[in-house]
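Batch job 17 of 40 flagged for manual review because the log was empty.
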Amino acid sequence: MAARTFAETLLTRIYQSVIHDLSEPPRGRRILLTGARGFGKTLVLKEVARALDDEARFFRQIDGAEGDDALESLERARTEVSARAPFGWVLLIDNVDTLLFSSAVDRGPGEASFAERTGTCLRGLLPWVRDVTEAQGLLCLSSTLSAIRIQEALELRVPPGESVRATADVFSNLVQRADRRALNPWARDAQTSAKRVLSDELAPCSRKQIVARVVEVVFELTGGHPGLVVPAFEVAQEVAKRLAEERAGTGAGEGEPALSVADDQRIRQTLEDAILCDSFKAPRHFLLSLRRSDEPTRRSAYRCLWSFAQQGTAIPLWERELLMEEGLLYQDDETLTYHIPGSLLLEQIRRVPPLSDAQEPEVSGAGARRPVVTLEPDPEQPTERGTLVIERSGATRRIPLSGGPYVLARLFVAEPAQVRSLKSLVLNQPPLGTEKSARSALQRLGVLLRRHHQEGLLENQYGEGYRFSERFEVRPLAWSPGEKR
């Protein structure tokens, strides 16, 4: 067996309990493995594969990032599994969210093609997700998105009228019931284990005090983020080795004094240069894409992150989830406080402020044109479904609605200036049934708007009720919701 790489040694140590749990024999288990980008989901599945690839059972590992090749592998596996199913089967699918959503298109004719592709993916995945208990199998899906985020994405990407809608609902419900395992490199004792691994790997090539200082600087700069620590290893090894050789040439012994200021600066600058050049490109690119995004939620995420870096300002839920999915923010298990991992990332955020109002894709102010909101009822079922259309800065966002959210949108668009309480919503729109149903419909409409980055449209005026915001130009329907068209 080939020697383990530093990445394998590091990640198997800090995720030891997760790997051990996933490597149990298949007993009808459905597992969703989640973690931010760069946390090591692929390597964890590789370790699980080492433990479970047994000739006595059917085994297959598939990378969802391979797209059509992954779908073909799923189809072939389904035809092959029956011969070895009596002994159980193991199916590991990495990047399942990439497989499902890589062709995601929010608007225009691309939606239909996306729904068609998603339907193909779901039809390939559903038999495995559905039959895992009866077949005594083990299905492990890895994803950057959580179970609820997968469900929300499917609700948005697959319109109600699509034939694959029912399949998407079944898949979402089954994934919601999966056992969930989250990779967290900042979990209790994980950072201690990570530092010990790096120390052990550096020890053969350098002196103890040099190794201790190099490890300290690596974790100060990276915050222990695996995606930054792993690429820094070779440079850390080189600088520790070179310093040890130089000090050996001076005849200094084991009891030598602490490192000089010059030595300390050399360690820090060498590691800073290496990390910034080799492993910081992905987080820097993502930060800049958030800052420049034409989607309000993503720009808001960067603005909140920048304020947090400057003053520790609290970050709202949706922005916080997006940042944590990208590994730009984490929560300490013991203190329950949030942190940006590492001084390099913190400094990168602090030195690049958000876009000013004048630089925003949509200029704010009294003279600026408000986004225009219209509702297009479905020609065949105008009282049951339709499309909410939002025109902003030359771009058009189309949000398919049905059921309660569509009923609410009809009412808000018909009378834009009217603020309605829950009781008023129920009285004006009998299909909502009860206040509980109306509250559920409001929540679902809010989720749809947030996922399309239009969360500012639905406004809750405290103590009064709900309406579409005055910040949008809501154009009324030509008829009232109670009339036939």
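Reviewer: the log was empty due to a logging misconfiguration, but the result itself is present. The first helix runs from residue 6 to 14. Unflagging and moving on to job 18.
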